[in-house]
Amino acid sequence: MVAVAGKVVVVTGGRRGLGAALVDEVLARGASKVYSTSRTAHTDARPRVVTVPLDVRSAESVAALAELATDASIVFNNAGVLLPGPLLTDDVERAAETFDVNALGPLRVARAFAPALAANGGGALVNMHSVLSWLAGSGAYGASKAAAWSLTNSLRLELAPQHTHVVGVHAGFIDTDMVAALDRSKAKPADVAARIVDGLEAGETEVLADDVSVTVKAALSGPVEHLTFSAAG
Fold first, then answer.
1. Which of 34, 65, 126, 203 could staple 167 via S-S, CB 3.0–4.6 A?
2. What is the CATH number of the domain that holds 73?
3. Residue 32 domain flag
4. Edge-to-edge strands of the sheet including 49-53?
5. d(CA 225, CA 73)
6. Which of these is catalytic: 33, 141, 188, 217?
7. Rg (Cα) of the chain, in Å, rounded?
8. What is the domain count for the chain?
9. Is 186 a catalytic site residue?
Protein backbone atom coordinates (compact mmCIF):
# COMPACT_ATOMS: atom_id res chain seq x y z
CA MET A 1 0.00 0.00 0.00
CA VAL A 2 1.33 3.42 -1.00
CA ALA A 3 -0.53 6.44 0.36
CA VAL A 4 -0.41 9.59 -1.77
CA ALA A 5 -0.78 12.08 1.09
CA GLY A 6 2.48 13.86 1.80
CA LYS A 7 4.28 12.27 -1.16
CA VAL A 8 6.08 13.85 -4.11
CA VAL A 9 4.58 12.59 -7.37
CA VAL A 10 5.64 12.64 -11.02
CA VAL A 11 2.98 12.50 -13.76
CA THR A 12 4.29 12.26 -17.30
CA GLY A 13 1.89 13.63 -19.88
CA GLY A 14 0.26 15.64 -17.10
CA ARG A 15 -0.86 18.59 -19.18
CA ARG A 16 -4.17 17.18 -20.45
CA GLY A 17 -6.49 14.20 -20.59
CA LEU A 18 -5.92 11.42 -18.09
CA GLY A 19 -2.60 12.94 -17.03
CA ALA A 20 -4.26 16.20 -16.00
CA ALA A 21 -6.92 14.21 -14.12
CA LEU A 22 -4.19 12.29 -12.29
CA VAL A 23 -2.53 15.56 -11.28
CA ASP A 24 -5.88 16.80 -9.92
CA GLU A 25 -6.52 13.52 -8.11
CA VAL A 26 -3.19 13.26 -6.30
CA LEU A 27 -3.38 16.92 -5.29
CA ALA A 28 -6.85 16.30 -3.85
CA ARG A 29 -5.43 13.38 -1.87
CA GLY A 30 -2.70 15.50 -0.31
CA ALA A 31 0.39 15.07 -2.47
CA SER A 32 2.98 17.56 -1.29
CA LYS A 33 4.34 18.25 -4.79
CA VAL A 34 3.53 17.11 -8.31
CA TYR A 35 5.92 17.27 -11.24
CA SER A 36 3.67 17.53 -14.30
CA THR A 37 5.36 16.98 -17.65
CA SER A 38 4.47 17.55 -21.28
CA ARG A 39 6.41 17.48 -24.51
CA THR A 40 6.20 21.27 -24.79
CA ALA A 41 6.47 23.75 -21.93
CA HIS A 42 3.25 24.56 -20.07
CA THR A 43 2.25 26.45 -16.94
CA ASP A 44 0.18 25.66 -13.86
CA ALA A 45 -0.61 28.31 -11.27
CA ARG A 46 -1.07 25.86 -8.39
CA PRO A 47 1.84 26.20 -5.96
CA ARG A 48 2.28 22.44 -5.48
CA VAL A 49 2.66 21.79 -9.22
CA VAL A 50 6.03 21.99 -10.95
CA THR A 51 5.76 21.91 -14.75
CA VAL A 52 8.62 20.33 -16.68
CA PRO A 53 9.11 19.74 -20.42
CA LEU A 54 9.79 16.07 -21.19
CA ASP A 55 10.30 14.00 -24.31
CA VAL A 56 10.20 10.35 -23.26
CA ARG A 57 11.93 9.42 -26.52
CA SER A 58 15.07 11.17 -25.30
CA ALA A 59 17.27 9.56 -22.64
CA GLU A 60 18.78 12.98 -21.96
CA SER A 61 15.37 14.58 -21.38
CA VAL A 62 14.32 11.76 -19.06
CA ALA A 63 17.62 11.96 -17.16
CA ALA A 64 17.16 15.70 -16.68
CA LEU A 65 13.72 15.13 -15.17
CA ALA A 66 15.05 12.44 -12.83
CA GLU A 67 17.88 14.72 -11.74
CA LEU A 68 15.36 17.46 -10.94
CA ALA A 69 12.83 15.21 -9.19
CA THR A 70 15.10 13.29 -6.83
CA ASP A 71 12.47 13.75 -4.10
CA ALA A 72 9.85 11.71 -5.99
CA SER A 73 8.23 8.71 -4.32
CA ILE A 74 5.50 7.94 -6.88
CA VAL A 75 5.87 8.00 -10.67
CA PHE A 76 2.93 7.77 -13.09
CA ASN A 77 4.14 6.71 -16.54
CA ASN A 78 1.24 8.23 -18.47
CA ALA A 79 2.76 9.89 -21.55
CA GLY A 80 1.71 8.18 -24.77
CA VAL A 81 0.93 8.63 -28.43
CA LEU A 82 -1.73 7.27 -30.81
CA LEU A 83 -0.76 7.16 -34.50
CA PRO A 84 -3.49 5.06 -36.14
CA GLY A 85 -2.77 2.93 -39.16
CA PRO A 86 -2.76 -0.71 -40.30
CA LEU A 87 0.38 -2.72 -39.65
CA LEU A 88 0.79 -3.84 -43.25
CA THR A 89 0.39 -0.51 -45.03
CA ASP A 90 1.15 2.33 -42.59
CA ASP A 91 4.58 3.95 -42.54
CA VAL A 92 6.85 1.73 -40.46
CA GLU A 93 8.46 4.86 -39.01
CA ARG A 94 5.12 5.71 -37.37
CA ALA A 95 5.09 2.26 -35.80
CA ALA A 96 8.65 2.81 -34.58
CA GLU A 97 7.67 6.14 -32.99
CA THR A 98 4.66 4.50 -31.35
CA PHE A 99 6.86 1.85 -29.73
CA ASP A 100 9.49 4.43 -28.80
CA VAL A 101 6.95 6.55 -26.90
CA ASN A 102 4.56 3.92 -25.52
CA ALA A 103 6.96 1.10 -24.62
CA LEU A 104 10.53 2.37 -24.50
CA GLY A 105 9.46 5.73 -23.03
CA PRO A 106 8.09 4.19 -19.82
CA LEU A 107 11.16 1.96 -19.62
CA ARG A 108 13.47 4.98 -19.85
CA VAL A 109 11.50 6.68 -17.08
CA ALA A 110 11.55 3.57 -14.89
CA ARG A 111 15.31 3.15 -15.28
CA ALA A 112 15.98 6.82 -14.57
CA PHE A 113 13.79 6.99 -11.47
CA ALA A 114 14.63 3.62 -9.90
CA PRO A 115 17.52 5.06 -7.82
CA ALA A 116 15.40 7.95 -6.48
CA LEU A 117 12.51 5.65 -5.62
CA ALA A 118 14.89 3.33 -3.78
CA ALA A 119 16.46 6.23 -1.89
CA ASN A 120 13.01 7.47 -0.88
CA GLY A 121 11.83 4.19 0.59
CA GLY A 122 10.72 2.32 -2.52
CA GLY A 123 7.55 4.17 -3.42
CA ALA A 124 5.60 3.21 -6.52
CA LEU A 125 5.77 3.09 -10.30
CA VAL A 126 2.41 3.19 -12.10
CA ASN A 127 2.40 2.32 -15.81
CA MET A 128 -0.56 3.12 -18.03
CA HIS A 129 -1.46 0.36 -20.49
CA SER A 130 -4.74 -0.09 -22.35
CA VAL A 131 -7.44 -2.67 -22.89
CA LEU A 132 -5.94 -2.74 -26.38
CA SER A 133 -2.89 -4.47 -24.85
CA TRP A 134 -5.09 -7.57 -25.08
CA LEU A 135 -7.09 -6.91 -28.26
CA ALA A 136 -6.15 -7.27 -31.92
CA GLY A 137 -7.05 -4.64 -34.49
CA SER A 138 -5.46 -1.42 -33.27
CA GLY A 139 -2.20 -1.66 -35.18
CA ALA A 140 1.05 -0.50 -33.64
CA TYR A 141 -0.74 1.20 -30.75
CA GLY A 142 -2.14 -2.03 -29.33
CA ALA A 143 1.14 -3.84 -29.98
CA SER A 144 3.08 -1.13 -28.16
CA LYS A 145 0.73 -1.32 -25.20
CA ALA A 146 1.09 -5.10 -25.11
CA ALA A 147 4.85 -4.59 -24.97
CA ALA A 148 4.39 -2.04 -22.17
CA TRP A 149 2.28 -4.55 -20.23
CA SER A 150 5.04 -7.15 -20.52
CA LEU A 151 7.68 -4.60 -19.48
CA THR A 152 5.64 -3.65 -16.43
CA ASN A 153 5.30 -7.25 -15.30
CA SER A 154 9.06 -7.75 -15.56
CA LEU A 155 9.85 -4.42 -13.90
CA ARG A 156 7.66 -5.52 -10.99
CA LEU A 157 10.07 -8.40 -10.37
CA GLU A 158 13.22 -6.35 -10.88
CA LEU A 159 12.10 -3.51 -8.61
CA ALA A 160 10.76 -5.73 -5.83
CA PRO A 161 14.13 -5.97 -4.00
CA GLN A 162 14.13 -2.19 -3.51
CA HIS A 163 10.50 -2.28 -2.31
CA THR A 164 9.11 -0.31 -5.24
CA HIS A 165 5.47 -1.22 -5.81
CA VAL A 166 4.70 -1.55 -9.52
CA VAL A 167 1.15 -1.08 -10.79
CA GLY A 168 -0.11 -1.78 -14.31
CA VAL A 169 -3.28 0.02 -15.41
CA HIS A 170 -5.67 -1.12 -18.13
CA ALA A 171 -8.51 1.07 -19.38
CA GLY A 172 -10.82 1.22 -22.34
CA PHE A 173 -11.61 4.45 -24.13
CA ILE A 174 -11.27 7.60 -22.04
CA ASP A 175 -12.86 10.89 -23.06
CA THR A 176 -9.69 12.70 -24.09
CA ASP A 177 -8.37 14.51 -27.16
CA MET A 178 -6.46 11.37 -28.19
CA VAL A 179 -9.64 9.46 -29.06
CA ALA A 180 -12.01 12.36 -29.71
CA ALA A 181 -12.71 11.11 -33.25
CA LEU A 182 -13.79 7.64 -32.13
CA ASP A 183 -17.51 7.03 -31.81
CA ARG A 184 -17.30 4.82 -28.73
CA SER A 185 -18.53 4.87 -25.16
CA LYS A 186 -15.86 6.67 -23.13
CA ALA A 187 -15.10 6.94 -19.43
CA LYS A 188 -14.53 10.28 -17.76
CA PRO A 189 -10.83 10.99 -17.05
CA ALA A 190 -11.59 11.97 -13.45
CA ASP A 191 -13.36 8.65 -12.81
CA VAL A 192 -10.48 6.65 -14.25
CA ALA A 193 -7.91 8.67 -12.30
CA ALA A 194 -9.80 8.03 -9.07
CA ARG A 195 -9.90 4.27 -9.71
CA ILE A 196 -6.19 4.24 -10.48
CA VAL A 197 -5.22 6.04 -7.28
CA ASP A 198 -7.68 3.90 -5.30
CA GLY A 199 -5.89 0.83 -6.63
CA LEU A 200 -2.46 2.24 -5.87
CA GLU A 201 -3.42 3.07 -2.30
CA ALA A 202 -5.03 -0.35 -1.85
CA GLY A 203 -1.82 -2.10 -2.86
CA GLU A 204 -3.12 -3.57 -6.13
CA THR A 205 -0.63 -4.66 -8.77
CA GLU A 206 -3.09 -4.38 -11.65
CA VAL A 207 -5.90 -1.85 -11.95
CA LEU A 208 -8.81 -2.47 -14.32
CA ALA A 209 -9.99 1.09 -14.55
CA ASP A 210 -13.37 0.60 -16.21
CA ASP A 211 -15.99 -2.01 -17.04
CA VAL A 212 -14.56 -2.62 -20.52
CA SER A 213 -11.17 -3.68 -19.16
CA VAL A 214 -12.85 -5.93 -16.57
CA THR A 215 -14.86 -7.66 -19.31
CA VAL A 216 -11.91 -8.13 -21.65
CA LYS A 217 -9.60 -9.39 -18.89
CA ALA A 218 -12.20 -12.05 -18.06
CA ALA A 219 -12.18 -13.17 -21.70
CA LEU A 220 -8.43 -13.72 -21.96
CA SER A 221 -8.74 -17.44 -21.34
CA GLY A 222 -11.11 -17.84 -24.29
CA PRO A 223 -10.38 -18.25 -28.02
CA VAL A 224 -7.80 -15.74 -29.20
CA GLU A 225 -9.81 -14.92 -32.35
CA HIS A 226 -12.47 -13.35 -30.10
CA LEU A 227 -9.97 -10.84 -28.71
CA THR A 228 -10.45 -8.09 -31.27
CA PHE A 229 -10.92 -4.34 -31.27
CA SER A 230 -14.71 -4.78 -31.54
CA ALA A 231 -14.74 -6.34 -28.06
CA ALA A 232 -13.85 -2.96 -26.57
CA GLY A 233 -17.46 -1.79 -26.95
1. 126
2. 3.40.50.720
3. yes
4. 49-53, 33-38, 8-11, 74-77, 124-128, 165-170, 206-208
5. 41
6. 141
7. 17
8. 1
9. no
